[in-house]
Amino acid sequence: QVQLVESGGGLVQPGGSLRLSCAASGSIAVIYNMAWSRQAPGKQRELVATVTNGGSTTYADSMKGRFTISRDIAKNTVYLQMNSLKPEDTAVYYCFADISLSSRGSAGRYWGQGTQVTVSS
């Protein structure tokens, strides 16, 4: 019932900026939190940033001061503003969210399909 779709990825030069979006759709009752993770070739998937339904945010150490996560509750959308991008930021970026459906009382975790971010000159 729930789908998450990422957008905004692409090719950017080192030092540049990019904004990712992830929109959730379906019979959503509550989104408890939304988050971004990433996976670079040959590396484990890592958590990038999270935002709770109360607006609290967390960031991985390597992203602190450069990335900003935000959300639009009414649009069921989470954003990731990425500044001062480095080649090591190259990865597939995935959003996920913990969501309860209108027809169920329990929450589940839902993932998007990912969007490619490439930082290269």
Give the number of DSSP strands.
11
Q: On the 0-100 scale, what is the average pLDDT?
A: 95
The largest sheet, given as strand count, sense and whether it forms a barrel, is: 7 strands, mixed
- What Rg do the Cα atoms give? 14 Å
**Residue runs with pLDDT of under 50 for 5 or more positions:** none
The number of helical elements comes to: 0
Distance between the termini: 40 Å
Structural class: mainly beta
The helical percent reads under 10%
Description:
0% of the residues lie in helices and 59% in strands. Strands 2, 4, 5, 6, 9, 10 and 11 form a seven-stranded mixed beta sheet that branches. Strands 1-3-8-7 form a four-stranded antiparallel beta sheet, with no helix packed on it. It is elongated. The chain has 121 residues and is mainly beta. The N and C termini lie far apart (40 Å). The protein contains no helices and eleven strands. Strand 9 and strand 10 form a beta hairpin.
Write the SSE topology.
Layout: E1 3-7, E2 10-12, E3 18-25, E4 28-39, E5 46-52, E6 57-59, E7 67-72, E8 77-82, E9 91-101, E10 107-111, E11 115-119
Parallel strand pairs: 2-11
Antiparallel strand pairs: 1-3, 3-8, 4-5, 4-9, 5-6, 7-8, 9-10, 9-11
Short description:
Helices cover 0% and strands 59% of the residues. By secondary structure, it is mainly β. The model has no long low-confidence stretch (mean pLDDT 95).
